[in-house]
C-alpha cells in the first residue's frame, strides 16, 4: 500500500507542477512541454524526498520484499555457489 500512496503523491505533485509550468511559460509547444516536464520531475522528486521520506522508505522496503521472493535460485547457481564455498574453505585451510 505504501508503494501506491507514494506513487500517487509523486504523480499528483508532478501533474500539478507540470500543468502550472506549462500554462505559465510563454514558450511554444515542444520547448514548453519539455521544460514543464523537467520542472515537474525535479519538484516531485524533491517533495517526495524531503517531505515524504518515511513513506518513501516504507515503499522501498515493500518493493524489496516483493522482489526477493520472485527469484528462485537455479540448480546451476546453487552448484556454483557450493563449488565457490568449497574452494574458499580449501584456501583458508591452506593458509
Summarize, please.
With 95 residues, the chain is an all-alpha fold. Helix content is 86%, strand content 0%.
Explain how this protein is built:
The longest helix has 23 residues. It is built from four helices and no strands. The termini are far apart. Helix 1 packs antiparallel against helix 2 and helix 1 crosses helix 3. It is mainly alpha-helical.
Main attributes of the structure:
95 residues, mainly alpha, single chain
Main β-sheet, in a few words?
none
Uncertain segments are none
Order of helices and strands: HHHH
> Roughly what percent helix?
over 70%
Broad shape: elongated
Count of DSSP H/I helices: 4
Q: What amount of the residues lies in strands?
A: under 5%
- What is the residue-averaged pLDDT? 88
* Terminal Cα span: 51 Å
β-strand number: 0
Radius of gyration: 23 Å
Which class of secondary structure composition applies to the elements?
A: mainly alpha
List the helices and strands and how they pair.
Blueprint: H1 2-24, H2 29-51, H3 53-68, H4 75-94
Helix pairs in contact: 1-2, 1-3
